[in-house]
Design a protein that fits this description.
This protein has 397 residues and is an alpha+beta fold. It folds into three domains: 2-98, no CATH class; 150-170 and 223-396, no CATH class; 173-217, no CATH class. The protein contains 13 helices and 16 strands. The protein has helices at 2-5, 14-28, 37-45, 58-77, 116-144, 148-153, 177-186, 194-199, 225-240, 255-260, 272-277, 341-352, 354-360, and strands at 83-86, 95-98, 163-167, 173-175, 215-217, 245-249, 263-266, 283-288, 291-296, 303-305, 307-308, 314-324, 333-338, 373-382, 385-386, 390-396. Helix 2 crosses helix 4 (58-77) and helix 9 runs parallel beside helix 12 (341-352). The longest helix has 29 residues, at 116-144. It is elongated. It starts with a helix and ends with a strand.
Length: 397
């Protein structure tokens, strides 16, 4: 167990290590009664004794993640492990399998009754059959080899729950009806209905003064176009992977929602969950005196700023895609956010495109799909539309 806990597959998974040690020690000490879903939830994950296991699948999710990590560990170790620890599906009681090396005296001698020529023909036939089998399996492995897209999104399948796609909705103000009426008095025939008021700008003289009461908050609108593109793109790629999604709009998703499902959080400065979940990571979002940028927290001089052209139009933006396998929520969380909405759109395109992912992870650690990671991307922006993302920095841990 100690060898497993110190392996690359478990080294950076606090919950994976806690889960494995909990079930193994209780099994070795004969406390099988502790290895029930509700008991594990109470003792290991600090849930209430009467919590609903149907509504809170934390134990099932972590057990599924543990099984995947164990499988990956033994694949990397080959047949060198003298003891194999397994957690059977549908159970939280581990099993231990011991592999003793076969002694020479136990090996059966080759049959010698057949004639030499017949034996040679039989061996040749067996060799051909084995060769055909190897070629067939190799062909299937080539076909079934997971793409970078499959490997990036694989953790969402540790639970049957749909992926929550959370899109922020910043606070939006609009002119009040009284302000429109004041304008109509001197411009009759304009803004007579809501269609005009929603689709046409109110052409007040820049020198006109208005009172704060003539501006009102407007809860029905305010989602950024880049965030919407990002949400649809991610929903589309998860649909192709046969993973259901649910959309959440606004800053309403509570921590309880994020704790019960894997989630993709879209947006940065406008989305409090992105800001909170990435606050202690290497690449984060910073602001001072109305200026926004992406900061490398290991190097204060390394910063990425959006660039503006004429009429304050964004011409270049940066975004960050973050994948946290073991986040504060207890589930996989992926955030895609930019300095502006174009950066969010570019980050979402990066995590949705197998070619971009394959190119970025070509020199990554072999087990990068079992690691947390952050990717900073740059994009050129034309007419408020983000171009292809270009990777400028990656961090794994």
């Amino acid at each position: 167990m100690d060898l497993i806990l110190g392996s690359p597959e478990f080294r950076h998974s606090a919950r994976g290590k806690q889960f494995l040690e909990f079930v193994v020690r209780n099994k070795l000490e004969g406390h099988d009664e502790m290895l029930k879903e509700r008991t594990i939830g109470k003792e290991l994950f600090r849930r209430n004794a009467d919590y609903s296991t149907g509504d809170d699948p934390i134990v099932r999710v972590q057990a599924g993640e543990l099984r995947k990590r164990l499988e990956h560990y033994y694949q990397a170790a080959g047949n060198t492990s003298a003891v194999r620890i397994e957690l059977p599906v549908g159970s939280y009681v581990p099993e231990f399998h011991f592999h003793a090396a076969e002694s020479k005296s136990e090996k059966k001698p080759l049959a010698t009754e057949m004639k030499p020529r017949r034996g040679r023909w039989l061996l040749a036939t067996v060799a051909l059959v084995l060769l055909a089998g190897v070629l067939t399996v190799a062909g299937r492995l080539t076909i079934l080899r997971p793409t970078a897209l499959d490997r990036f999104w694989a953790p969402v399948f540790s639970t049957q729950d749909p992926v929550l796609i959370c899109v922020s909705k910043p606070l939006l103000y609009r002119p009040s009806i009284d302000l429109f009426r004041r304008y109509v008095k001197t411009h009759p025939g304009t803004f007579d209905d809501e269609v005009d008021r929603l689709n046409e700008p109110l052409p007040l003289d820049p020198k006109d003064k208005i009172s704060w009461g003539e501006m009102i908050t407007f809860p029905d609108f305010g989602v950024g176009a880049g965030d919407v593109y990002a949400a649809f793109r991610i929903s589309g790629v998860l649909g192709k992977l046969n993973k259901p999604t649910q959309l959440r709009i606004g800053n309403g998703p509570a921590f309880e929602d994020l704790r019960n499902s894997p989630a993709v959080i879209v947006g940065a400065f406008s989305n409090r969950w992105t800001m909170e979940l990435t606050s202690g990571l290497r690449y984060g979002f910073a602001e001072k005196d109305g200026i926004f940028w992406i900061q490398d927290r290991t190097d204060d001089a390394k910063r990425w700023y959006a660039k503006l052209g004429q009429h304050w139009q964004v011409t270049e933006d940066y975004g960050v895609a973050t994948r946290l396998l073991d986040s504060k929520t207890g589930h996989l969380v992926i955030t895609v956010g930019g300095i502006t909405a174009a950066g969010s759109d570019a980050a979402s395109e990066f995590v949705s495109n197998p070619d971009y992912l394959a190119a970025a992870f070509r020199s990554a650690p072999t087990n990068w799909d079992y690691k947390n990671l952050q990717v900073v991307v740059r994009t050129a922006v034309v007419d408020s539309i983000a171009g292809p993302p270009q990777v400028v920095a990656i961090n794994y841990w």
